[in-house]
Predict the structure.
Amino acid sequence: MIKNGILDWDSYFMAMAHLSAKRSKDPNTKVGAVIVDEHRHIVGIGYNGLPVGCDDNEFPWDREGDFCDTKYPYVVHAELNAILNSIKNLHGCVLYVSLFPCNECAKAIIQSGIRKIVYESDKYADSDTTKASKRMLNAAGVELCQLPYSINIEVTETGN
């Protein structure tokens, strides 16, 4: 939110997560994540994409079909990428993510010591993976905070 012409911290970091998501080549789901320390310094950032060294054009991005012909066995989620790309110990940090984390990412979030998740969309709230994620995060004492508004970042393409 903007108050007195100034973007609040949650909106600022969520906007950064959305900007990072613009790097994803996934045609259906673009997710970005930003990890922030107690000084409000960004210490990790990521988006959903393939592991380093795997060419985005040589792997499938389909959502349906045989498992190995879909994106699911290959894509690293934004949260895990942000954790793996972090520049310091994440104990006590805050994760900003555009889509609520799945159960696999929840495990990495808990293990890394992140204490709070600020998220925007919870569109898979009724899925088993999200239910499992919330169960683990709550048990581990990770604070969950959904933004009451959406962030929209527009980036225009150039001819280059």
In short: The two ends are 33 Å apart (CA to CA).
